[in-house]
Amino acid sequence: MTAQTLTIGKALNLGLRKAMEDDAKVVLMGEDIGKLGGVFRITDGLQKDFGEARVVDTPLAEAGILGTAVGLAMRGYRPVCEIQFDGFVFPAYNQIVTQVAKMHARSRGTLPMPIVIRIPFGGGIGAVEHHSESPEAYFAHTAGLKVVAVSNPVDAYWGIQQAIAAPDPIVFLEPKRRYWEKAEVDVDATPDPLFASRVVRGGDDVTVLAYGPMVKTALQAAEAAAEEGRSVEVVDLRTVSPLDLDPVYESVRRTGRCVVVHEAPVTLGLGAEIAARVTETCFHSLEAPVLRVGGYDTPYPPSKLEEEYLPDLDRVLDAVDRAMEF
């Protein structure tokens, strides 16, 4: 066993390194990812070891990055594109939804698009405008894309490698405010499947669903609820497209209550789709309506106000309390 204590950021770095060692067709592209190693240093040292042809410092042109990635994928490469911050992805949105997501179907299966689009997402770092967005619903709504949202170093290390090896385009969401969270990572272990949810804390009274940065918040809420005598089960969805909801249904049939948590605004967020599916499938087991906790229907606020905007332990506990009142 070769276990190491890694941050999410370092786990991603080592995962990228392993993928590049295993496949010479893996190419990294992004703004300042080479000599600088990226704003969050996720690609630190990779250009030095693999060269400028495989770790490419691009111009500040997200549409150009993704357009180039499409061409590389058509020629047999596996591009991994870093979008420096979540809010910077929108200039590339046209390329992602009209080319990346559709090329495989358009070519009747002859042109796969094994492209990974890495996006640090979510708030909590005191950043300026366009640096704290949660755009996952846009991509989950787009047929032809898969969307992964890791929450811990183990999933970061294995997930990035699995995403790069996959034949389909994957939007790989990284919880930027959790980059420095640590955990033991066994680099010789057999990883869980990429598109599978996981129960990360058992419980009997309420099921709380989360992904990305909100998993830690959900776990903290579960710990606080336990002090009040309530048993909260927490499920890390791990991927938001496709959704792996069988473990969720199993949990909700047992607890009878469900709360969905994400940073993105509640209206038409992933919680709405999940709530609908849980209600359709587990209707006769539910003791309360499925409740949602998320951001407000406002643009992401200035950093001094973000603690008021972001879902926290108290807002999750409030939803748990409301679910238990039925």
UniProtKB/TrEMBL annotation:
Domain Transketolase-like pyrimidine-binding: 6-181
Record-linked CDD domains: TPP_PYR_E1-PDHc-beta_like
Gene3D superfamilies in alphabetical order: 3.40.50.920, 3.40.50.970
Superkingdom, taxonomy of origin: Bacteria
Protein keywords: Oxidoreductase, Pyruvate, Thiamine pyrophosphate
Signal sequence residues: none
Cofactor: thiamine diphosphate
MF (Gene Ontology): magnesium ion binding; oxidoreductase activity
Protein name, per record: Pyruvate dehydrogenase E1 component beta subunit
Lineage: Bacteria, Bacillati, Actinomycetota, Actinomycetes, Geodermatophilales
